[in-house]
Amino acid sequence: MDNFKIRWLNYLKETRDEGLLNKTRYADHVFEVIVAKNGALIENRHAQKDRILFDFLRKEKSWAPGIRSGRPIAYLLKLKVPKELFGPENLKELLVRSDLIKQEFLKQ
After folding, report:
1. Hey, how many other C-beta atoms are within 10 angstroms of the C-beta on 50?
2. pLDDT digits (tens, 9 = 90+) for 2-17
3. What is the pTM assigned to this prediction?
4. CA 26 to CA 75: how far, in whole Å?
């Protein structure tokens, strides 16, 4: 998971530096996407559609479903944009945060 966090933080830094990620809109914003049983990514209907999230996810390798009791299960993936990214950030400090990436299994 640490490698995924590093890629997420580096992607956020790049988009911030390109001017696509602004503090007013994205500080402490949480993106949500559902990973279906077959690994397909589905936009959470309650979440705002955002190009930043899906540009990042497209660059990642294929997704796999969650596994519970040996069976595939869908889950909600939450990716947070830490507000510290808009200040003098220290990536090592951000990597240890448990709230950057969360997976919540969905009831079937």
Report:
1. 15
2. 888 899 999 999 999 9
3. 0.82
4. 23
